[in-house]
Specification:
With 189 residues, this protein is of the alpha+beta class. It has 7 helices and 8 strands, in the order αββββαααββαααββ. A hairpin with a 5-residue loop joins β1 and β2. The chain starts with 18 loop residues before the first helix and ends with a strand. The model has no long low-confidence stretch (mean pLDDT 90).
């Protein structure tokens, strides 16, 4: 996969607000659900989900979901990642747009709560979201990079631009090489 456009401003899924970055991020990282080539919502790292009363979404993760470094992806990884995206410290330009339906998300984004109350880890492979009203578009919002999972250890040890030297994701491709202003090469995961 060779890219022939300007360098992406970021490969941090939680900071993506432009199509150049998103074009690479969706190949290297992933979330619970994705859109297929027909723009239909399909499972990604989630194996399945249930919806109760239009308000409670419970996702079962694929048992074989792994980061590029081999670590299993857990429900706790998703909770941490989404809360990182919504954190005032991360300063995501789009977290309030894509995560605002989750109960407690806006309080967390505004620094008024220690976590997002509407996200519950049931067990290692099950995560639950409670939203503030029945919304047909909620699942589609989860397909945006703001809700993608990242490896906490990699992010915390790499600083603000952790993705430059070690963009460990879960997507179908890994970043193989990136030479500023020249090329970006992805290889199959």
């Amino acid at each position: 996969f060779r890219r022939r456009w300007a360098d992406p401003p970021t490969l941090d899924p939680h900071l993506v607000s432009d199509t150049t970055s998103a074009g690479v991020v969706v190949e290297v990282f992933s979330g619970l659900v994705t859109l297929n080539t027909n723009l239909q919502l399909v499972p990604d790292l989630a194996e399945s989900w249930t919806i109760d009363d239009g308000l409670v979404y419970t996702f079962k993760l694929r048992p074989n979901a792994r980061f590029h470094n081999g670590k299993p992806v857990t429900a706790q990884d998703f909770k941490w990642s989404i809360e990182r995206a919504a954190s005032p410290k991360t300063a995501s330009p789009v977290a309030d747009t894509y995560l605002n339906d989750i109960v407690g998300a806006m309080d967390f984004i505004e620094g008024k709560a220690p976590d997002i109350s509407g996200i519950r880890v049931i067990d290692d492979n099950t995560i639950q979201f409670k939203i503030d009203g029945a919304k047909a578009y909620f699942l589609a919002k989860l397909s945006y990079p703001t809700a993608f999972v990242v490896d906490r250890e990699v992010v915390e040890s790499g600083g603000r631009n952790w993705w430059v030297s070690n963009p460990v994701g879960t997507g179908p491709f890994k970043l193989k090489a990136w030479e500023d202003e020249q090329f970006l090469v992805l290889e199959r995961n």
